[in-house]
Amino acid sequence: MKKASTNGHSTPTPMPTPPSVNDFALKIGTVNGTGSASANGLLMQAIFHMGVPVSGKNIFPSNIQGLPTWYEMRVNATGHTARTGRFQVLVAMNSQTYKKDVAELQTGGYLVYDSSWPLDASLARADVHFLGIPLAALCNQEFEGARERLLMKNIAYVGALSALLDVDLGIIEHLLTEQYGAKKALIASNFKAVKLGYDHAREHFDCPLPCRLERMAPPDDYILIDGNTAAGLGCVYAGATVGAWYPITPSTSLMDAFRRFCAMYRREKETGRNKYLVVQAEDELAAAGVVLGASWAGARAFTPTSGPGISLMNEFIGLAYYAEVPAVFVDVQRVGPSTGMPTRTQQGDLMLCAYASHGDTKHICLYPADPSECFELAVAAFDLADRFQTPVFLVSDLDIGMNDWRVKKLEWNDQYRPDRGKLLTADQLDRMDAFYRYLDVDGDGITARTVPGVHPKGAFFTRGSGHNKYGAYTEDSDEYAEVLARVARKIESARSHVPSAIIHSTGAEIGLVALGSSDGAAREAAEQLATQGIQVDYMRIRGFPFGSEVDQFLNAHEVNFIIDQNRDGQLRRMLVLETSAPKDKLISVRYYAGMPISSHHIVTGVQQQLAQGVIAV
Amino acid sequence: MKKASTNGHSTPTPMPTPPSVNDFALKIGTVNGTGSASANGLLMQAIFHMGVPVSGKNIFPSNIQGLPTWYEMRVNATGHTARTGRFQVLVAMNSQTYKKDVAELQTGGYLVYDSSWPLDASLARADVHFLGIPLAALCNQEFEGARERLLMKNIAYVGALSALLDVDLGIIEHLLTEQYGAKKALIASNFKAVKLGYDHAREHFDCPLPCRLERMAPPDDYILIDGNTAAGLGCVYAGATVGAWYPITPSTSLMDAFRRFCAMYRREKETGRNKYLVVQAEDELAAAGVVLGASWAGARAFTPTSGPGISLMNEFIGLAYYAEVPAVFVDVQRVGPSTGMPTRTQQGDLMLCAYASHGDTKHICLYPADPSECFELAVAAFDLADRFQTPVFLVSDLDIGMNDWRVKKLEWNDQYRPDRGKLLTADQLDRMDAFYRYLDVDGDGITARTVPGVHPKGAFFTRGSGHNKYGAYTEDSDEYAEVLARVARKIESARSHVPSAIIHSTGAEIGLVALGSSDGAAREAAEQLATQGIQVDYMRIRGFPFGSEVDQFLNAHEVNFIIDQNRDGQLRRMLVLETSAPKDKLISVRYYAGMPISSHHIVTGVQQQLAQGVIAV
Amino acid sequence: MTTSIPKPKVRHPGLPVNQIGLTRRDYEGAMSTLCAGCGHDSITAAIVRAFWELSIPPHKVAKLSGIGCSSKTPAYFLKEAHGFNAVHGRMPSIGTGASAANRDLIFLGVSGDGDSLSIGLGQFCHAIRRNLNVVYILENNGVYGLTKGQFSASADIGTKPKKGEPNRNPPIDPVLLALNLGATFVARSFSGDKEQLVPLVKAGLAHRGFAFIDVISPCVTFNDHEGSTKSYAFTREHTKQVVEMDHLSVIDHDEPGPSDLVPIRTEISASYAPGTRLDVAMHDGSTVRLRKIDEDYDPTDRDRAYSYVRSAQHKGEVATGLLYLRTDAPEMHEIENTVAAPLAMLPFEELCPGSDALARLMEEFR
Amino acid sequence: MTTSIPKPKVRHPGLPVNQIGLTRRDYEGAMSTLCAGCGHDSITAAIVRAFWELSIPPHKVAKLSGIGCSSKTPAYFLKEAHGFNAVHGRMPSIGTGASAANRDLIFLGVSGDGDSLSIGLGQFCHAIRRNLNVVYILENNGVYGLTKGQFSASADIGTKPKKGEPNRNPPIDPVLLALNLGATFVARSFSGDKEQLVPLVKAGLAHRGFAFIDVISPCVTFNDHEGSTKSYAFTREHTKQVVEMDHLSVIDHDEPGPSDLVPIRTEISASYAPGTRLDVAMHDGSTVRLRKIDEDYDPTDRDRAYSYVRSAQHKGEVATGLLYLRTDAPEMHEIENTVAAPLAMLPFEELCPGSDALARLMEEFR
Ligand SMILES: Cc1ncc(C[n+]2csc(CCOP(=O)(O)OP(=O)(O)O)c2C)c(N)n1
Ligand SMILES: Cc1ncc(C[n+]2csc(CCOP(=O)(O)OP(=O)(O)O)c2C)c(N)n1
Ligand code: SF4
Ligand code: SF4
Ligand SMILES: [Mg+2]
Ligand SMILES: [Mg+2]
Questions:
Q1: CB under 8 Å to C163, separation ≥6 — which residues?
Q2: ipTM at complex level
Q3: Of B64, B283, B338, which has the smallest distance from its Cβ to C69's Cβ?
Q4: What is the DSSP code string of C80-122?
Q5: Residue C19 pLDDT exceeds 80
Q6: Could you give the angle at the alpha carbon of B318 between the alpha carbons of B316 and B322, nearest 5°?
Q7: Of A195, A221, B26, C301, which is least packed with CB atoms within 10 Å of its CB?
């Protein structure tokens, strides 16, 4: 270090940290509603533009203003950007959470804090570097007005970090120019704040730190996008015309995105009128009803929601299942049960989505692992809903839905045409002697469907009460059972139509199984286990009912560790119920405290189980 | 036969039926809304008073007037009164369903029909006895007015059956006298109608038939009661003061019963005011809210409903689970999914009740097998809800809830006092330094609870959002997880407090497992299998989470046949998930077409599985 | 796109046919399974008549309902129309979605007082707010018929059940509620008054927006006794028609209205004294002719209509007729500014932005 | 039975104490986490003041809410009262159950316009119908604050969002709705007008039955801009007090009111010209003194109140004050004829009929 690190408490200087280029995690603690979100976004984007794999996790409160909020970034040249929860750099801007934040820093790490005021002695830690920068003081000097000073303080720490981590200032300037366009004054003041922090850091500390960035290949093929935006876009591309929702965190931004893209792509040129209709429903029950009504009338329709919404939609889900009405539900999961922690992530609704509603039901579910799959599987959801005439759940979560992920650019095949399934046209109906809604003429469990307004022969009465294969009301045991058995067959047959599991196999004895946002941590864990001599094959499940490859994988391994971001091991439970694998082959590894899962949760979980002797290794 | 049986179609006389005393099944097909219900009830009661074990199954439409309805009775001296679906006597009073009804009669059986009009030739069957009685003609002669004639026609067939089956007319007269009390004219006209049928039958046929009744020991210890009435009474005895509901078949009569008994037992003498309050809520969501609110404020509260109601209550159930508010839900199951068949029976909500709501949840469930247990377990439900501070489901069904069952008289132990669990009194609070709602001081997973209005120290803020063990709002991962893990432990610990399974074991290799209304058919099936050389042990489960005896039973048998009245084998699924038994020990036997299950469904199911070689016998 | 299927001109020789060659039979449905004498069956008959008279092709109609005896009735009319028997109280949201998907359909919703005022109250109110383009008939009998006669939220204070205590909770009056919430067509009628009901249904069909018709429809089995305020006898005695109405279809055959709806001429059943008469042009080109029977009444003033209905109630009267009409409020599609063609029928090519647009869009995320 | 716990008479020396020796601090709660300037915080302050002035023992109070920024506020007052933060829109049913269980509690419900008029509309209306004994405060900001500013059902036509298109759906006015449904105490106020709000809350607490107070409570973060009809500026300009009100507690200390509530004397803040003044006796023995500022107004006539509020709206005014009051309607417990003691406190012996009764009853089933 050029200058002594100002830990300010005359504690011994901590051990120097081994250099780590393009491989560290950073956490920034601020107060919500103070503009830190855009500062953090700026830094994240700058790193992205340097070509370095990076992820950002926004750990925000269920509140609008004044409470602690955090932003975590992980940089990893090899692409492991799952959350680690182990930070080498920590920016502590919120005095309410100083103590907790400082405690999270790894030994040898760097704490950046606002040294405009002296630090409480009790917050000292001998094993980390304290890098004090008088951010408030600097900004008070250079800027006018409380709001401006508050905002610029955040931008200033971005400047300081740029110096410390070796972020290219040119990129920062470029990003500010892109963001503010013609508002030259804003660009100037922001860049001034960046320079304030940057210059101060370079002047007072050895810059860059051993833990720092280095440009990589330009990220031309990549974008930064969140899953809700991608899913909303997927709904546009799938041809959905009716969306219904009731606002609920963390799904709200999905409908925001859908509307934004519709405003771009779905305006009739001549008239300025909309080729879509979004109903902000009075509640989730109504939102579900709108989706069923619209699908019944022939549109592709969807509703984004979260756990509480799915609970409220239970009755309608059963109606859609039994009356065989297509419907797409997006569950952006948050922490349950009940209201739970609306701004934390979990995979707590796996079982609910698979079996929602009273009576015997089973639903098709799709499990995207990142925003790119949110886009793809949103499209697939509509095709499956139309083909199987049933509710389909796109089961996402807050981590995927609301955080920015670095993924390959989304692509579209213009050959794609919607699979509307057995939807009869007027011509087809015209040629038929008679149409019976629930008559399985070709034995595949799927019966032809009509929509209103097309042809008098197509008319039938859609109902959630007992009906026979002709579509007539029934209370007859055999007639009822015949239809319900066929519906079961139909859903079973979907197992070969849902996207199949992604399997990385080298013939190991141990299987590792995950879905959704656990993917990154699971892949990383697999590598880490390998370095410890524990070889694992990895399977990521993408759809339910599970395809035969899932069954095969589980049976082919001595044991399988099933990763769940929920308390009760819901994925494991579903595998127990829905595959032929013996229960003792399926070992649960769980984390459910609301942060995105980390590889060390998995590695530790696996190690503990192995230590308990679930298999001889 | 004294006189030729009038099958009217000069077909050969069917084979004489072997005599069968106190062992036959009878079905009566009529039109709903024509007064047949009271006629059928009269016959059922008369048989009951003869001391002969009898059951009645009312197979009625989801309609108020004019549609086909059936009443089935099974008489069995050894007490097997589960539905058989195989009838020796059939009374066909409804021309709409003649054909179907006649087809259901066993070879050698007796068809009683109204011979006022000639029978359609196409309805003839050579292998059964046709006993035509001109019921309408007789009644038209003797009675005035359409309504009276319609009603009396039904009473007249009771008379005819009394002759044919050898029902004691004295008992019938006694019952009419009890029913109509001072209304002498009614007694007289009813009895006249009985005699019309009786005399005609005796005159024209060899009475009694070989298949007939014979008096047994007086039924002093027995009553005829339906499960909803018994459960409503249980709520009164448990000290429930607040009931909330939204009408839904087949649960409606439960609240009717509760109100009726409250009117009898819960009027303040001096003032005539009520010691209970029933809220007819605007829907099931509100009914659940009322229960939570009332329980939170310290009352014992409950809501009866059926599947669609449970679906709608999902959100509130999760709140009660997570905020740990006691709440008693009675699910009188009907056929699902969706509106399904509201007047048919099923066990389709087993999984839903056990795991309702989003996020990780698990709920205590109790499974009464007959009205007597509805009474007992209703009381237990309140104790468990209070002790474990959680939703408890009394999982009944239409068969138990709405049909009359012959059970031992209900009994009450005056020593009983409600188990209110860790509910703090003002004195206790006064002596405490501080009260923290979710602090587990004694390690049993259950924390002390307070109700409003008792003591300032008891105050806390009940919420479904994240909370720590002190009851404060939290978004902290560890604090959240700590509470949720304890809640899981708490519910697990209930396994030794729910009523344990009833086990009949003779050390057989095969286990038979059932719950709820499958009990009668299962016990009968066990006997029938034994006569075929297939010995089975039988376990009837009564509570969830399953006690250790359930685990032991399953593991102790080579295979277990799990009986489910639902399509997907929900009890089996729960056993797979919640016991240590390997999946291949648990074989599903299912019937789900909406009638009460019969022993032959089970026997056939078991035989088929054995034929497929699930075990070598 | 949809094809309009012409019906064979004469199918039941001898029966009168309408403009599109259909007899009244063609507008019927399955046999009713309701109790003999149930008010709901009379409403079914009025619906059949109204659709027939308007010569609406049945397959252009979407019949919607919730759960209840009333909600069963869509099975008993227009067998060639699609129907959706939703879950209890949730028909308005199904209707909202179906209308969103296909604005060319003609929507007829049938509900009960339990279905709309208890479990479905929220959805009912919000459908009004959106001015959903539907004829919404509430078959109001003051009880839950299908679950055997419990009081509903429309039961009046003091009305007596067959057994037990009189009702003590104040009623929710759907007409007042609809006026309060700004419904654009508010009517009340009586199932026993077909003369009034048929033109109301026709006018409702001509209306663009939420056409609400509360029809008192006695439940003979559970709420038709002495002491009930929803019995035939009580209703006959206490209803008072305050606005007489006729629905006059356009006569000009060259200009059919929108949505394949070709209105035909109907007889004008009454001739009015000038001055009390008001002709309102409907969006489909037909005319609604109103005649105030009570001078005080103004069916175009929402607040006065409200006051009038209230003061009638104070006098023990149930005001009936087309109580309020407003034709210039936008319905949901106008509020949402959607294209003229039904969304469900737009070709995929018009909906999917394609790969080039996506490639361009991706630059935004860099 | 419950024990009433006396508070130490002086806990914060120097601060004024009320009749039961508590300071205003004793009526506060946790620190608010709402945005600085949020209208909801002012309402919290008014609630604290009202309870303090009425000397209500905090632990006799049950605070209820749904979900939303507004629904968070019960954490910020009366820390010694139990609170129940229900699920979204379902507070009325929780309140119904809690009131059923313990009629001696004093119920205060706080909700938002999203909570009560969207997802919770049905429950809200039905709680009014039951005349639930609760003070129900709707903190009305025209948006869903907690989910970041979407329009709620109370947003006016034409009101502008921060970004995007103005609202085109007609509002549900909770005051009109409450009047329509027969709420027995209907008021409107403004979070910025503590002078008006504190006596309203006190009068609400004195009222037996559903005391509804709609409080316009601007959301500074999402709905306080130019063009919004729920901003501070707009509300200040457009509200018009039509009834001035004071709550006068009883002076006789020897006869405490029910439920341990010992009202104290309050200053009478205004003196009225005779003739415009109306004193209404409340069930707890206190008096509500109303002074009509607008001569046309009659706060005891529900229909005229309705018309007045509507006509004010036509003039672009928002009428505030205690708009309607009716003291003779039975609340839920009176309707249901329950005993005087709280049901939750009845000893088991009074509830369980016992074995003899059961043995006798069994004869009925033979
Ligand atoms: C979720 C749900 N709850 C309850 C029921 C039971 N149920 C069926 S119809 C009905 C009430 C019907 O009343 P109304 O709408 O007035 O129709 P009516 O039968 O009087 O015509 C009820 C409560 C149901 N089907 N679904
Ligand atoms: C079932 C359910 N749906 C949606 C949400 C998300 N949500 C939380 S608060 C809220 C709206 C709050 O609006 P309002 O009641 O007006 O309160 P404000 O924040 O404006 O005070 C919504 C939609 C939820 N918590 N639960
Ligand atoms: S019960 Fe009442 S509403 Fe239902 S069909 Fe019969 S008469 Fe009509
Ligand atoms: S977002 Fe609006 S309503 Fe919520 S706390 Fe902030 S100002 Fe208040
Ligand atoms: Mg009704
Ligand atoms: Mg709001």
A1: none
A2: 0.96
A3: B64
A4: TSEEEE-STT-HHHHHHHHHHH-TTSEEEEEEEHHHHHTTTHH
A5: yes
A6: 120
A7: A221
Burial class (CB in 10 A: 0-12, 13-18, 19+), B8: middle
Which residue in this structure is represented by tokens 């069968």?
B20
Q: What is the pTM of this model?
A: 0.96
Tokens of B385: 């809800």
Contact, A481 vs B593, CB < 8 A?
A: yes
Residue C256 is predicted with a pLDDT of 39
The percent of residues in chain A predicted with pLDDT above 90, rounded, is: 92
Helices A146-165, A169-180: axis angle to 10 degrees equals 140
Give residues 541 to 570 of B whose Cβ lies within 8 Å of D: none
Per-residue pLDDT tens over the stretch B216-266 = 998 899 999 999 999 999 999 999 999 999 999 999 999 999 999 999 999
Q: How far is the CA of D145 from the centre of ligand 6 (A)?
A: 5
Q: What is the pLDDT of residue D275?
A: 56
Residues near B198 by beta carbon (within 8 Å), at least 6 away in sequence = B159, B160, B162, B163, B169
Q: Provide mean pLDDT across the span A16-44.
A: 90
**CB half-sphere exposure, C25, CA atoms < 13 A:** 10
Torsion of CA B190, B191, B195, B198, to 10 degrees: 80
> How many angstroms separate the alpha carbon of residue D150 from the centre of ligand 2?
10
Q: Of all atoms in ligand 3, which is nearest to the CA of residue C40? A: 8
Q: What is the pLDDT of residue C294?
A: 81
Is the pLDDT score of D250 beyond 90? no
Give yes or no for residue D71 CB within 6 A of ligand 4. Answer: no
What is the Cβ-side half-sphere exposure of residue A178, based on CA atoms within 13 angstroms?
A: 13
Chain B residues close to D345, C-beta within 8 Å:
298
pLDDT tens profile A270-292: 999 999 999 999 999 999 999 99
Query: What number does the ligand 4 atom closest to the CA of D68 have?
Result: 4
What Å distances lie between residue A48 and A41, A428, D320, CA to CA?
Answer: 10, 53, 55
Position C290 scores a pLDDT of 86
Q: Which residues are near ligand 6, the ion (C-beta closer than 5 Å)?
A: D 112-114, 141
Protein residue closest via CA to atom 1 of ligand 4:
D145
Burial B421-450 (b: 16+ CB within 10 A, else e): bbbbbbebbeeeeebbbbebeeeebbbbbb
Tokens at A461, concatenated: 């009465």
- Please tell me which of the candidates C100, C122, C365 has its beta carbon nearest to residue A225: C365
Closest alpha carbon to D169 in C126, B148, B547, C233: C126
Residue C185 and residue C326 in contact, taking contact as beta carbons nearer than 8 Å: yes
User: Where residue D206 falls among pLDDT bands split at 50, 70, 90?
Assistant: very high
Among B387, B314, B312, B306, CA closest to B347? B306
**Chain D nearest-CA residue for C181:** D172
Largest alpha-carbon pair distance within chain B? 93
How far is residue C191's CA from residue C173's CA, in Å, rounded to a whole number? 17
**Which chain C residues touch D175 with a CB distance below 8 Å?**
none
C349 — contact with chain A (CB < 8 Å)? no
Contact B274 D86 (CB under 8 A): no
Tokens representing A451?
């929509």
Q: Is C228 in the pocket of ligand 3 (CB under 6 A)?
A: no
Examine the pLDDT at B614 and tell me if it is beyond 80.
no
* Helix (H) or strand (E) run with residue B393 in it: strand B391-397
- Label residue B17 by pLDDT band (50, 70, 90): low
User: Which pLDDT band holds residue B11 (cuts at 50, 70, 90)?
Assistant: very low
D344: which DSSP letter?
G
> What is residue C340's DSSP assignment?
S
> Residue D328 class from Cβ within 10 Å (0-12 exposed, 13-18 middle, 19+ buried)?
exposed
**Average pLDDT estimate for D277-305:** 88
SS3 D99: helix
